[in-house]
């Protein structure tokens, strides 16, 4: 059946291709002249054939098949000098192009290095693309530039709470976001209990978030894809850059290994609060540790015109420890990629992937000494192909496979400790996917991208499964499975389709539908980005999550592309959604399935976005009106309720103003409705003890959240003879000292013990920081 469907789709794609007589192909790479890095999403158009062109892929590669003849090819990338190249096509040929940054307009278009009308012309909808240069102009918490916090300022994206780097997209949970760093999944993207993300902006090249219309080559999560690409390293000359901030310092080195052929980049970051503990007169503080570090590294090598290798890795860790207690957690990812050109129209990329997230905590006191560890680890391979059939059809197809290993918890006690050893059962899973899609320009105005993804998932041994009584509470039997023995398997089809219709030169209408399946589930007792979450696979009692999303949008540019605007509406239905029973026990529970309930969810809303991308004043304003609900039998007597991340209103204003070539100021203001919480509404006494009576699930709201951040950057002017550049950035986080609720807890009133009072805690008042950046 699956073979038949895939074959039918392939034949449908090929049927749209027109017969090609006396046609030849021109192909190559579009690169940054200064660094040699490929330019993702650069436009290559044919002047003599309006509407004919192509966009470079993730590695800067393009391919155009045209009738023989003489043409003018326009190579365009916003912020770079456009090149018009005269070509005589009598036979297929390879033509690489290097674009040079346009220094006279670079600063005023730093908001976006895309083609000016990309939002109208491209197939992409429900997609956010941000450049690191833009993110670095924004005010930052304690001076640490954070791309995840920048994404939280976009329509359709909600933050997880004050100071945290978790995020929610269009009503989905935080675990429903797939985060890829050079194609490797990152399972916990938070540093310092969620106040910062793990992504060092100095090492990042490209950031793209898909809120809907997710391409068929990606899957495994319901809500979104955050695709992050690391820099490849300058293959023209050596560069050193870095910064010294309030809590952390950074250093990046990139240089050619063989000029024009091979390069590397190494980027590191570390906080140093622990270095000041030793200066304290308090002996209890002197021995404490509190820091995090990141290390990004990447090497690439061009073997020949048809083959190129990339190797990249990320290593990061948080450490928090006192003389009595320790805690650490971190990620490690690694990818090896091989780009291969079979011919001038067929491009392939083969990727080998490793990802690991683990955490440990424990006591150092002799009588209670223990170490508690947990881990999730992936080994994967992806084989992706892009076939440039002709200027109107671009095929993508491939096969992915990932082996997952889950170790939920293992406790090892010290020799003289009263704590007992404990190890919860580990489990494994194999996830595979096969996909095919085609982007087809049917007419000059209508383009359709259609595709199909077929995914499978098998929960495999060694492992054990409990059999329960009718009440699903008490185990009556245990079934043990040997190594690689199938415990439970699932599969599903995930169709994807998107369409764009150009109304005129300045506006278009887009629509998309996609079905997504998610086989991994995150269990947590906290909405903050704590490191103690547990990931579990779909299995005997936990089915895969499923979502169907439709979206329609209107996109319009104004005043010669100075302003771009959009309005999108969406509806998302979600099945097999997991929530917890009242008073559920998640921690160190061998039988988690007995604490879980399953139901459905829906989310819908409208997103408004207006952006100014030219001139001295740039930035955007966004507003999201949305609603998210869950319906889970066993919760609220089966009535619908709002999950904690539901926020009806959300608005953001982001501005950047260039006073002079040396001085830039920025401001961010954000507002959102308070998150949903469950509160005690009464209490009762039994046997001399007082017990609370709670409201329905998430029946109340936290206070509204709003905050203003400011920044000012002074960049020391330098002329062409000075190789050293530097800048100072002053940031003020929460400029009017708003006391936003981090959490609310309840206690007996100190004045009247017959009453219960709510106590709000908050993290930050007005918080200034100063950062010095350099580059040479």
From TrEMBL:
Q: Which SUPFAM superfamilies match?
A: Carboxypeptidase regulatory domain-like, Porins
- InterPro entries (UniProt xref): Beta-barrel_TonB, Beta-barrel_TonB_sf, CarboxyPept-like_regulatory, Plug_dom, Plug_dom_sf, TonB-dep_rcpt-like
The terms describing its cellular component in GO are: cell outer membrane
User: Is-annotated flag, keyword Membrane?
Assistant: yes
A Gene Ontology molecular function term for this protein is: siderophore uptake transmembrane transporter activity
One biological process term from GO is: siderophore transmembrane transport
The protein's location, in the record's own words, is: Cell outer membrane
The signal sequence is 1-19
* Domain named TonB-dependent receptor-like beta-barrel: residues: 291-734
Query: Keywords in UniProt for this one?
Result: Cell outer membrane, Membrane, Receptor, Signal, TonB box, Transmembrane, Transmembrane beta strand, Transport
Q: Which family does it belong to?
A: Belongs to the TonB-dependent receptor family.
Q: What is this protein called?
A: TonB-dependent receptor
Record the organism.
Answer: Pontibacter burrus
């Amino acid at each position: 059946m699956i073979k038949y469907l895939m074959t039918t789709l392939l034949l449908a794609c090929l049927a749209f291709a027109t017969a090609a007589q006396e046609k030849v192909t021109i192909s190559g790479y579009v690169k940054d002249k200064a660094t040699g890095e490929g330019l993702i999403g650069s436009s290559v158009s044919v002047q003599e054939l309006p509407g004919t062109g192509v966009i470079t892929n993730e590695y800067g590669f393009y391919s155009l098949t045209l009738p023989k003849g003489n043409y003018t090819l326009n190579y365009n990338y916003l912020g770079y000098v456009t090149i018009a190249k005269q070509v005589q096509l009598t036979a297929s040929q390879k033509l690489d192009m290097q674009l040079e940054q346009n220094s006279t307009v670079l600063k005023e278009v730093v908001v976006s290095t895309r083609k000016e009308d990309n939002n109208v012309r491209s197939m992409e909808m429900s997609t956010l693309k941000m450049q690191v240069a833009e993110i670095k102009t924004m005010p930052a918490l304690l001076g640490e530039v954070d791309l995840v916090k920048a994404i939280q300022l976009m329509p359709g994206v909600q933050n997880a709470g004050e100071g945290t780097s978790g995020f929610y997209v269009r009503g989905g949970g935080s675990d429903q976001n797939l985060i890829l760093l050079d194609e490797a999944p990152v399972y916990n993207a938070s540093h310092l209990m969620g106040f910062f993300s793990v992504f060092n902006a100095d090492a990042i090249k490209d950031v793209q978030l898909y809120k809907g219309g997710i391409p068929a080559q990606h899957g495994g999560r319901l809500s979104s894809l955050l695709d992050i690409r690391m820099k490849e390293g300058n293959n023209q000359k050596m560069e050193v850059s870095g910064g010294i901030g309030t809590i952390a310092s950074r250093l990046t080195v990139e240089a050619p290994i063989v000029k024009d052929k091979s390069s590397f980049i190494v980027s590191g970051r570390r906080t140093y609060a622990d270095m000041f503990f030793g200066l304290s007169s308090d002996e209890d503080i002197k021995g404490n540790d509190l820091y995090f570090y990141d290390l990004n590294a990447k090497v690439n090598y061009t073997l020949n015109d048809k083959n190129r290798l990339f190797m990249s890795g990320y290593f990061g860790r948080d450490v928090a420890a006192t003389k009595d207690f320790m805690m650490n957690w971190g990620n490690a990812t690694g990818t090896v990629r091989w780009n291969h050109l079979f011919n001038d129209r067929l491009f392939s990329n083969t990727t080998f992937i490793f990802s690991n997230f683990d955490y440990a905590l424990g006591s150092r006191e002799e009588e209670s000494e223990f170490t508690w560890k947990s881990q999730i680890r992936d080994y994967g391979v992806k084989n992706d192909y892009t076939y440039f059939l002709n200027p109107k059809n671009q095929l993508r197809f491939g096969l992915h496979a990932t082996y997952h290993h889950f170790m939920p918890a293992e406790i090892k006690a010290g020799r003289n400790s009263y704590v007992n050893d404990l190890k919860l059962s580990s489990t494994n899973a194999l996830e595979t996917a096969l996909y095919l899609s085609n982007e087809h320009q049917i007419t000059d105005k209508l383009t359709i991208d259609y595709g199909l993804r077929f995914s499978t998932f098998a929960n495999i041994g060694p492992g054990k499964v409990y059999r329960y009584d009718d009440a699903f509470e008490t185990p009556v039997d245990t079934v043990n499975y040997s190594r690689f023995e199938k415990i439970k398997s699932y599969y599903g089809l995930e169709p994807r389709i998107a369409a764009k219709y150009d109304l005129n030169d300045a506006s278009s209408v887009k629509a998309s539908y996609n079905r997504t399946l998610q086989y991994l589930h995150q269990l947590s007792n906290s909405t903050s980005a704590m490191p103690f979450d547990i990931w579990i696979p779909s299995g005997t009692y936990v089915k895969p999550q499923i979502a169907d999303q439709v979206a329609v949008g209107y996109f319009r540019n104004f005043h010669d592309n100075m302003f771009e605007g959009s309005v999108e509406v969406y509806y998302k239905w979600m099945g097999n959604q997991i929530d917890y029973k009242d008073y559920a026990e998640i921690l160190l529970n061998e039988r988690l399935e007995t604490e879980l309930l399953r139901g459905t969810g829906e989310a819908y809303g409208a997103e408004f976005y207006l952006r100014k991308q030219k001139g001295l004043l740039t930035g955007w304003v966004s507003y999201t009106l949305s609603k998210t609900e869950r319906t889970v039998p066993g919760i609220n007597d089966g009535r619908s309720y709002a999950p904690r991340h539901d926020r009806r209103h959300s608005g953001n204003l982001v501005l950047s103003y260039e006073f002079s070539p040396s001085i830039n100021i920025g401001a961010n203001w954000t507002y959102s409705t308070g998150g949903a919480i469950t509160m005690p509404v009464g209490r009762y006494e039994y046997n001399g003890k007082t017990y609370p009576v709670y409201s329905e699930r998430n029946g109340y709201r936290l206070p509204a959240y709003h905050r203003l951040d400011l920044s000012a950057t002074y960049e020391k002017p330098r002329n062409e003879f000075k190789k050293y550049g530097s800048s100072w950035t002053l940031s003020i986080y929460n400029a009017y000292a708003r006391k936003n609720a981090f959490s609310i807890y309840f206690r007996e009133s100190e004045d009247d013990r017959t009453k219960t009072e709510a106590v709000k805690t908050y993290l930050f008042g007005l918080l200034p920081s100063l950062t010095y950046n350099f580059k040479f």
